[in-house]
Amino acid sequence: MTPRQALEESTRLAQEVDRLGYARYWMAEHHGSETFMSSATSLLLGHVAQHTEGIRLGAGGVMLPNHSPLMVAEYYGTLATLYGDRFDLGLGRAPGTDPMTAAALARGSGQLNDFAADVLALRDYLGDPRPEARVRALPGEGTHVPLWMLGSSTGGAQVAAALGLPFSFASHFAPDQLREALLVYRDRFRADAETAQVARPTTMAGVNVLVAPTQEEADFLFTSAQLMAVRIRSGQPAPIDPPVADLAEVVPTQLQPLAHAHQAVRAVGTPDVVAERLEAFAADHELDELVVTTYTYDPELRRRSFRLLAEAWGMAPRA
C-alpha cells in the first residue's frame, strides 16, 4: 500500500482498539524503513488523538539519543496541552535505524550515563514550573507526561530501576534477556529516587499475537510476521509479505531459524488458546501489562485479531 494508506490503516486500528476497551495504543520510532512508516512519532500520535476518544496514546518509544530532551518535552507537552492526560512517553536508547541514517540524525552517544542524564533533563522539563529556570519547555512544564523506560537488554532495566520508572521490555523481538532484565529491574528498583513515578516495580512485556477462528488460519497468517523477521534480521527489509503455505519453500535453510527465534515470545491460534497463553506468560513473569503486537498482510485481519482477543479476554467496550 502507499504510505498514506498505511498511516490511515494505523489510525483505523487505533479507533478499533479504542472502541474495544484496550488500555493503550503505542507507536514506535523507526527511520529510513520500508517496513514501518513511523519516523515522526509525535506527529502520528497527534493525528491519532484527533480520531480517538479515550484510549491512552504513547510513544513506544522515543529513541532519546536521536532528539534533544527539550524538544521531546515541547512536542509531548504540546500534545498533553491539546488533548489532556492521554499520553505515555516511552524512552529508548536504540537508534531505530541503520548506522548511516543514525549519523544523519545527529545522534547522541546512547551510553547509559548520557541516556540517564537526558531522562533526568526531560523529567525536569515536564515537571512543575520553575520560573527561575533559564531554559523551560513551553508548553511542556507542568504536564507531567508519564515516563516509561523501554529496553531489550539489561541496560534499560538498570536505568529504569535507578530512576524509579516503570519498565517495558521488548520481548516481542528480543526475548533472550527478558528474565534477566526483569530480575535486574526488580532487584535494583528505587522507590525513593527523586525521579520515581511508581511506588513499586511496574512491568510490561511485548508478545507477538495473531488470533484467528482456527489454528490453521492463524498459523498461515503468522507467516507474514515470520517473513518480516527474516527480512529484518538478514538485512533485506521490505513491506510486509503476503502469507505463505510453507515457509521452507520461500526461506533459505540457513535463514529459517530467524523466522522462529526472533519471535519466540508469541501466542498464535484461536481466541481461547491465545488468551490462555497470554495469561500464562503474564503470570510466569509477574507482569502488570502486556504489549500485543500483530502483523498481517491484510489490515482487516489485524483488526479482526484484536477483536477476537478482546472478546476472549472479556474486555468491556469503552463507553
TrEMBL record:
<dbReference type="Pfam" id="PF00296">
    <property type="entry name" value="Bac_luciferase"/>
</dbReference>
<dbReference type="GO" id="GO:0005829">
    <property type="term" value="C:cytosol"/>
</dbReference>
<dbReference type="InterPro" id="IPR050766">
    <property type="entry name" value="Bact_Lucif_Oxidored"/>
</dbReference>
<dbReference type="InterPro" id="IPR019949">
    <property type="entry name" value="CmoO-like"/>
</dbReference>
<dbReference type="InterPro" id="IPR011251">
    <property type="entry name" value="Luciferase-like_dom"/>
</dbReference>
<dbReference type="InterPro" id="IPR036661">
    <property type="entry name" value="Luciferase-like_sf"/>
</dbReference>
<feature type="domain" description="Luciferase-like">
    <location>
        <begin position="5"/>
        <end position="282"/>
    </location>
</feature>
<protein>
    <submittedName>
        <fullName>Luciferase family oxidoreductase group 1</fullName>
    </submittedName>
</protein>
<dbReference type="GO" id="GO:0016705">
    <property type="term" value="F:oxidoreductase activity, acting on paired donors, with incorporation or reduction of molecular oxygen"/>
</dbReference>
<comment type="similarity">
    <text>To bacterial alkanal monooxygenase alpha and beta chains.</text>
</comment>
